[in-house]
């Protein structure tokens, strides 16, 4: 069994866990890769979502060997047998714990911001990761959840090696894995997109969880309908079917109250509307009062039977143009000013579509994009265009400079220092979101509305 990405894996895992819906359940994602998976499970179960932050206590002279683990709330689990065999003293244990406790607290603050940890005492804790390799982290998480008072612990993952349950049956009441292949060499082997999850994406998953699903009553966080940190209300992004010139494409449409503009996202090759990086940027735009539409540029059949379609800039641009026409025909979207956000090859499609003579697009942003693939269309783009590239993405920087030289519209090339192509470095994706928000709010919210 293979998964497109962690979001798709989470949805399939959620279907298996559906019998838990309606119970007193808390979903706990293991940072970082387990959190996007857990977010989909929590959404399907309408359950509170939180992270379970654990740190291994490594033997001082052999840190890869765990002698215990710690969790929030002062919880500690110690393997006395390992301490005896390695002759680790109580003082040495205390020193390791102090160091790891500081790192645990730092990560918890980073992920949650001002939110309070969800209380799990007396409840069913569903511990979720993106897969099991050795099982050491999952084992520690289950032990920590139990020590924090969980009445029942369920460990759930999309993929694990054959025979995985033998080493974990003593720490969880139920073990769930969608796939347990014999030929298992690593978790990433079973994902098409297994890019590293960033801290920013973890924060976005927690931030996007509905207020009620963050368990305000039990944990002291805001109740359903309360505002997010920063003052903006949570924005739902229901699934929609986009009619793009007769082709039906899956999408997610988020409409903040009073939105005056909307940004359509064009994903890169091999990605989809579930792109965690695009979702992170979309969430930032929603908080700024902009609506967003993330949608698939191709059907599953089109990708599967002709891989060349993912690089067909003209085809992808037509899909974007047709989706724009469909969007503006929806009653709740009529009159909204339009922006395009393109990632990787999707940036070329966005610029190609924006170059159409009757294009309604008022602003374009490219993230790590390939605007050069829009070639001869670039001089005819009239929408103000922002090109964002990573400072360590040398080849793409050069391609963007060449493309910028061909643009005749208002434009800017911004380099994010130290960032690579996927902006996985700490703070890099947040900078992309900030830059995009400033560009779109400046060019969409103050632009005249489209004719209804």
Automatic annotation (TrEMBL):
Protein name per Swiss-Prot or TrEMBL: Phosphoribosyl transferase
GO molecular function, a single term: transferase activity
UniProt keyword terms in alphabetical order: Transferase
Keyword Transferase carried by entry: yes
SUPFAM superfamilies, sorted: alpha/beta-Hydrolases, PRTase-like
UniProt KW DNA-binding keyword: no
Family: Belongs to the AB hydrolase superfamily.
Phosphoribosyltransferase domain residues: 10-160
Organism: Kitasatospora griseola
Region (Disordered): 212-237
Signal peptide (residue range): none
A Pfam short name: Pribosyltran
């Amino acid at each position: 069994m293979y998964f497109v990405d962690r979001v798709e894996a989470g949805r399939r895992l959620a279907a298996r866990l559906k019998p838990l819906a309606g119970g007193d359940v808390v979903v706990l994602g293991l940072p970082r890769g387990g959190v996007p998976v857990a977010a989909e499970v929590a959404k399907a179960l309408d359950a509170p979502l939180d992270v379970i932050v654990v740190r291994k206590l490594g033997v001082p002279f052999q840190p890869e060997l765990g002698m215990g683990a710690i969790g929030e709330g002062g919880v500690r689990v110690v393997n006395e047998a390992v301490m005896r065999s390695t002759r680790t003293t109580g003082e040495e244990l205390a020193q390791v714990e102090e160091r790891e406790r500081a790192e645990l607290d730092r990560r918890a603050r980073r992920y949650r911001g001002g939110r309070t940890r969800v209380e799990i005492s007396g409840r069913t804790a569903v511990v979720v990761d993106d897969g099991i390799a050795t099982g050491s982290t999952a084992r520690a998480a289950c032990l920590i959840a139990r020590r924090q008072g969980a009445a029942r612990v369920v460990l759930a993952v999309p993929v694990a090696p054959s025979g995985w349950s033998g080493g974990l049956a003593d720490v969880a009441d139920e073990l769930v894995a969608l796939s347990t292949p014999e030929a298992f060499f690593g978790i990433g082997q079973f994902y098409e997109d297994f890019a590293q999850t960033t801290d920013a994406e973890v924060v976005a998953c927690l931030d996007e969880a509905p207020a009620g699903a963050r368990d305000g009553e039990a944990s002291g966080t805001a109740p359903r309908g309360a505002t997010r940190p920063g003052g903006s209300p949570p924005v739902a992004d229901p699934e929609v079917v986009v009619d793009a010139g007769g082709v039906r494409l899956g999408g997610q449409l988020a409409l903040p109250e009073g939105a005056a503009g909307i940004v359509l996202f064009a994903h890169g090759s091999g990605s989809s509307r579930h792109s965690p990086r695009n979702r992170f940027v979309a969430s930032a735009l929603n908080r700024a009062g902009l609506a967003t539409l993330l949608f698939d540029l191709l059907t599953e059949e089109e990708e599967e039977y002709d891989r060349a379609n993912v690089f067909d800039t003209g085809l992808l641009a037509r899909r974007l143009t047709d989706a724009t026409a469909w969007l503006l025909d929806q009653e709740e979207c009529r009159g909204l000013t339009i922006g395009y956000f393109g990632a990787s090859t999707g940036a070329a499609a966005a610029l190609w579509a924006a170059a159409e003579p009757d294009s309604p697009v008022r602003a374009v942003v490219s993230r790590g994009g390939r605007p050069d693939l829009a070639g001869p269309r670039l001089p005819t783009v009239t929408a103000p265009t922002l090109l964002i590239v990573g400072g360590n993405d040398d080849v793409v920087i050069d391609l963007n400079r060449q493309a910028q030289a061909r643009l005749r519209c208002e434009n800017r090339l911004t380099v994010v220092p130290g960032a690579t192509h996927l902006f996985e470095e700490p703070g890099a994706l947040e900078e992309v979101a900030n830059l995009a928000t400033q560009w779109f709010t400046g060019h969409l919210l103050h632009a005249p509305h489209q004719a209804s």
